[in-house]
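Pilot study result, target chain (317 residues):
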Amino acid sequence: MNAVTTTENNALAPRGMGFDLSPQTFEQAMKFSHMLAESDLVPKDFRGKPGNCLIAMQWGSELGLKPLQALSNIAVVNGRAALWGDAVIALVRSSPLCEYVQESDDGHTATCRAKRRGEPEQVVTFSMDDAKQAGLAGKQGPWSQYPKRMRQMRARAFALRDVFPDVLRGMPVAEEVQDMPPERHMGMADEVTPAAQRVTAPPAEWAADRWANGLVKWVDGIVNGGKSIEDVLAWLRSKATVSEAQEKQLREEVAKHSQAAAPSVNPDELAKSMQEATDLDTLYELASRMDAIEDLNQRQRVGAIFDARVAELEGQP
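Predicted structure:
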């Protein structure tokens, strides 16, 4: 049975309850989250934040905590979800994987002994020397008020997270996360700038002599080589700045050479071919050549013949 809905298998399950508030559907979970967020009985991190409530309940379901237990035992520390240390040891001890967890403190060093079934005992210590090295000893707050308790939480966190990571699902311990700064700096990092942003100043304009020497080649690549003007311009701009005058010149040269390269069309021959066409496919193929007729009147005359032939062929059975 699911650990979320089975009280007997739950590490922190209340005894003697006659009903279960665990939502069974996403809609129920959302409604329950809004109800909890409006309550004064939930921790302040969850008040007015139904999204946080929903995520905490989901974390709880994966850990084996019921919804209200999850909200009480999951803390948001430095923007990160973490489990309070008492909930951590409760979850571990309730797991069949745990043989025992024993804790002690001699006034200077806290010791946590944890044994997982089928594996050797693991012993973890955390002393005041460790606390000094970490910059925690005498730190304002719990470390100056309850040093024994904080040593215990540190030894517990290290031991149980190492020995029972599957039980805790990778959740950190709140008392440990509280001692970490909101942002952990790991030294200076090299800033990687995208290639497109590395140029601090626009490249120099194409020199007049280089432009003149390459113009014929670039125009030929567009007219006869199947390249588009935009692709050629993009390549040119990657090498140097193309001025408005240079771009205009390139476009004019391409237009001029494209007209010269276009095959000449005899209007009379094209009109005759249209008259002899016996199917629409042939007729439309011939029509694609009308734009090459330079004389506007002749182009209109051939266009009229084309329209008439289309009507005739479409009217045939």
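One observation from the pilot: The chain has 15 helices and five strands. A full batch analysis is planned for the follow-on phase.
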